[in-house]
Design goal:
CATH class of the largest domain: Alpha Beta
Largest sheet: 6 strands, antiparallel
CATH architecture of the largest domain: 2-Layer Sandwich
CATH superfamily of the largest domain: GAF domain
Number of domains: 2
CATH topology of the largest domain: Beta-Lactamase
Distance between the termini: 33 Å
Strand order of the largest sheet: 5-4-3-8-7-6
Structural class: alpha+beta
Strand content: 15-25%
Radius of gyration: 20 Å
Shape: globular
Order of helices and strands: HHHEEHHEEEHHHEEEH
Length: about 260
């Protein structure tokens, strides 16, 4: 049976339609310049530039070293790993809630795409002074607990590819020192956990452990975040043990679902 033709909404918003069409073009067709997007949408270059700037701001697009635009972290996740992300989120939520019940601190699950990490699930603590949910937000991978965990298994060539100088040509100050980062990642790999103190946000401490595939590859980071005033270093072994128990439970949920 043929599907009925779609009826446009009674009050279409042209700017929203243009932005959605531009995002779809980038996702399905690869890179495009401002001029190409303007031509495809039938708008002025200035309008296309503003649309693309907003897509970049919201992580639906990124601008490469040649000043062309391509699909960003949000669209890459949707195109390549949505089912994986959905499974991870569904399997983790009960255990994130249990972590919050046990620790009374905010718990998160995070995945990595390239040089960014995205929070795909979060449960907030009930305390008045707490870290808010980051669900849906994107951060530089080297600024987050999960990013350090998920890059700790990369070799030197893979790490250099993630942080290639060409990718940071227009923003060299954002590129981390790879020698220093490599030392940090080696420490994370040895310890099996990561601690983020004031790295992504002043006054915040996060502790995380990996959630692994059956082959041992880290596929997500499971973490708790708290105000630094409440963090006690002596509690770290207990925090890590509790997080590891939750990570193993998430892995068991995923295995059962398979």
């Amino acid at each position: 049976m043929d599907k009925p033709l779609k009826t446009p909404p009674p009050y279409p918003v042209a700017s929203v339609d243009h932005a959605l069409r531009a995002a779809t073009l980038l996702q399905l067709e690869g890179t495009a310049t401002v001029s190409q997007i303007a031509e495809r949408l039938g708008v002025a270059r200035s309008t296309a530039h503003r649309l693309l700037a907003m897509l970049v701001y919201r992580d639906f697009a990124v601008r490469d070293e040649n000043r062309a635009y391509r699909a960003g972290p949000v669209l890459e996740l949707a195109a390549h790993s949505q089912s994986r992300v959905s499974r991870l989120r569904a399997a983790s939520l009960p255990h994130l809630r249990r972590l919050v019940d046990l620790l009374d601190e905010t718990a998160n699950l995070t995945v990595r795409t390239g040089d960014t990490t995205r929070f795909i699930a979060g449960v907030e603590s009930g305390q008045a002074l707490r870290v808010g949910s980051r669900e849906g937000m994107v951060f530089p991978a080297h600024h987050t607990t999960a990013g350090l965990l998920l890059m700790s298994g990369l070799d030197d060539a893979e790490l250099a590819e993630v942080y290639s100088a060409a990718r940071y040509r227009d923003r060299p100050a954002d590129r981390p020192d790879l020698v220093r980062l490599r030392h940090e990642l080696e420490s994370v790999a040895r310890n099996g956990f990561a601690v983020n103190r004031d790295r992504s946000e002043r006054g915040l401490v996060a502790v995380g452990v990996p959630v692994r595939d059956p082959d041992g590859t880290a596929q997500a980071g499971l973490s708790v975040s708290m105000p630094s005033a409440r963090y006690e270093p002596r509690s770290l072994p207990s925090l890590v043990a509790t997080l590891n128990a939750a990570a193993r439970a998430v892995e068991a949920e995923l295995a059962a679902a398979r």
